[in-house]
Design goal:
about 40% helix; TIM Barrel
């Protein structure tokens, strides 16, 4: 039996006992510090992260838990790292797609969008509080809005980065200007849920990744769901069962705890909501948000 077949069989066995559907992890990062050109992130001094994060390593952690695929979220501002990720993804069908890095509002944006859009694994762009960019400031520029309309016209998604009230207020304005654009808010459990998030909850094209759940408090990372439940309840109450997605933030999450801890906390929470809600959270909502492609 080939190893990939064995892993698939193991995942099916686990799923049969946990009533969790085949899972799509909508937030992982791929990078390799051993490349000749190195990486812009993570920093060399970060012992937890400064090692290759590639699909085979992710498989070993995630497939035994029932994860059938993942969406890579770009963690590099280098243009050609979009192609590097696509080349890596082409070799391993556990990668269901990637959200890349391009800069709307720049003269070369349409050329780069046309180039990467030809690859069916390219699902959209990441833009927010990252790489010195400022969504709130860019919204006033007509060329920026025009480029995001082009993104929406291509059926691609905008994934935000590192939310705060200012960024979420900017997403409110953006979805007013480009109502056909699907938007995914990441890492919302990291902040107190502001009024801007509740405004976004009224917009059906806005999704939320329940990612970066773990937090360090007084020098320790709580492992009990009870510590995180109140904030998860706030997100659930605002966005409901049809707009929430599973995302681990691997391997960045390793700084707080192992992949299994990240997964088991949200599995406990969402399986308690019932099989239909769990299936939406772990799989079907991600298809609606990202329109990822089914691979072997």
């Amino acid at each position: 039996m080939r190893r990939r077949e064995f892993l698939g069989g193991a995942a099916s066995t686990i799923l049969a006992h946990t009533n969790v559907p085949p899972i799509i992890d909508t937030h992982i990062h791929l990078f390799d510090p051993t490349r000749p050109q190195g990486v812009p992130w993570p920093p060399r001094g970060n012992a937890a992260l400064y090692q290759p994060a590639l699909p085979e390593r992710f498989r070993r952690l995630a497939v035994p838990l029932g994860v059938a695929g993942a969406i890579e979220i770009e963690c590099s501002p280098w243009l050609e790292d979009n192609q590097w990720v696509l080349d890596i993804a082409a070799k391993d069908p556990i990668i269901a797609g990637m959200v890349g890095n391009l800069e709307p509002g720049k003269p070369e944006f349409r050329k780069h969008l046309e180039r990467f859009r030809k690859n069916g694994l390219f699902l959209g762009l990441r833009y927010g509080n990252l790489w010195g960019r400022n969504l709130a400031a860019e919204i006033s520029r007509p060329e920026f809005i025009a480029d995001l309309k082009a993104l929406a016209d291509e059926g691609l998604v905008l994934d935000t980065a590192n939310p705060n009230p200012t960024l979420l207020a900017a997403v409110v304005r953006l979805t007013d200007r480009v109502p056909t654009l699907r938007v995914v808010i990441d890492h919302l459990p990291q902040i107190q849920i502001p009024a801007e998030a509740r405004e976004l909850a009224q917009r059906p094209q806005v999704y939320v990744k329940v990612s970066a759940v773990l937090r360090r408090v007084d020098g320790r990372v709580p492992r009990e769901l009870s510590f995180y439940r109140e904030r998860l309840d706030e997100i659930w109450d605002a966005f409901g069962p049809d707009r929430l997605l599973y995302g681990s933030d691997w391997p960045n999450s390793d700084q707080w705890g192992p992949y299994s801890l990240v997964f088991n906390l949200v599995r406990e929470y969402f399986t308690a909501k019932g099989p239909a809600a769990a299936e939406k959270y772990f799989r079907t909502n991600s298809r609606a948000a990202y329109r990822w492609i089914e691979r072997s």
